[in-house]
Write a structure and sequence with these properties.
- The chain is an alpha/beta fold.
- It has one domain: Divalent-metal-dependent TIM barrel enzymes (TIM Barrel).
- The strands form two sheets. An eight-stranded parallel sheet has the order 1-10-9-8-6-4-3-2.
- Helix 3 links the parallel strand 3 and strand 4.
- The radius of gyration is 20 Å and the shape is globular.
- Bound molecules: manganese (II) ion (MN).
- The site of manganese (II) ion has 4 residues, from loops.
- InterPro entries: IolE/XylAMocC-like, Xyl_isomerase-like_sf, Xyl_isomerase-like_TIM-brl, Xylose_isomerase.
């Protein structure tokens, strides 16, 4: 299994690893993240993580830490406050497309496979604020232009229903699959973020099944939360059964991609927090193995809420 987590989490509880007055670079954060037991990969934000260090410096630090780079995630700053691929200022829209292409090139240069696109600002806050059809068409054409220029690289779309916009343009699994289908290229897929799915009141395992049946499952962002906000707390801490079901479907569809913990430890030691997430994932995976895929398949076929609760109880008491 490939495990990764948020590099920026390693700015937290700074004094446990760095002198309090040290200004942290990406290379410093890589040094700290490399102390996590069980971590295999690093994911970097573009352009954010390349402001103080060059791609070569980052590459060297990651190799020196005995880790690999899985990919790059786009982080659009306030230049794009009024939209990335749907910005009505043509110059800003072109810049969003150009920066995305740069991110893919950096990903390629660093030996990563997947560039994840989250469009924070493509959405709306008011009625009559957005021409929906035009915005949709602009998003399809931008993604098509980007993905067709790099056919050997994975481009993964991460949806989120709202925040920072009141409504995202593409905010759920169904719309994301429609978008990807309209883009019509084999190297475009979907990243499922557990909190984002909860915010949309999706059942996460169902979203796995829908993306997998279209062969578009490209990335996992795992965490947990209380549904209304992107809490980013530890895996399984609130929705344990839904996390177990999610991992069951990941196994059922032979998901071999990156398991990335998109959590925001602040009051926890981020090293211990990440190790705990890895342990929880492995423990739930082992519980499924022990129960047997066939036995769970049988449980699903019975469609019995009572038997599902007994399964939970048996797992606790085992
Ligand atoms: Mn995420």
């Amino acid at each position: 299994m490939m495990f990764s987590t948020r590099l920026n989490s390693f700015k937290a509880q700074k004094g446990l690893f760095f002198p309090e007055d040290q200004e942290l670079t990406t290379v410093d954060l890589i040094r700290r993240i490399s102390t996590v037991n069980g971590l295999t990969h690093i994911e970097l934000n573009y352009p954010e993580h390349f402001k103080k260090n060059t791609p070569d410096e980052v590459k060297e630090a990651v190799a020196g830490a005995g880790l690999e780079i899985s990919g790059i995630a786009l982080r659009f700053d306030d230049t794009y406050l009024n939209g990335e691929f749907t910005n009505s200022n043509e110059e800003i829209r072109s810049q969003a497309i150009r920066v995305t292409k740069e991110a893919i090139e950096v990903c390629q240069q660093l030996g990563g496979t997947t560039t994840t696109i989250w469009l924070a600002n493509d959405g709306f806050d008011y009625s009559f604020q957005l021409d929906y059809e035009q915005a949709w068409n602009q998003t399809v054409s931008a993604l098509r232009e980007i993905a067709s220029a790099y056919p050997s690289m994975n481009i993964s779309f991460e949806y989120k229903p709202y925040e920072p916009r009141s409504f995202s343009l593409v905010g759920d699994i169904g719309l994301s699959l429609l978008l990807v289908e309209e883009v019509g290229l084999p190297n475009v897929g979907i990243t499922l973020d557990f909190c984002h799915m909860l915010m949309k009141k999706e059942n996460p395992a169902y979203s796995v099944a829908l993306a997998a049946r279209k062969n578009r499952l490209m990335g996992f962002h795992l965490n947990d939360g209380y549904k209304d906000a992107d809490d980013g707390i530890m895996l399984g801490s609130v929705h344990l059964m839904q996390t177990l079901e999610f991992i069951y479907y990941a196994k059922k569809y032979n998901y071999t991609g990156l398991i990335y913990f998109d959590t925001f430890p602040k009051r926890e030691d981020p090293v211990a927090e990440c190790e705990q997430n890895i342990r929880i994932y492995q423990a739930l995976d082992a519980l499924i193995e022990k129960t047997g895929m066939d036995a769970i398949e049988q449980l699903i076929r019975e469609k019995s809420g009572v038997k599902v609760q007994q399964f939970l109880l048996d797992a606790f008491l085992a």
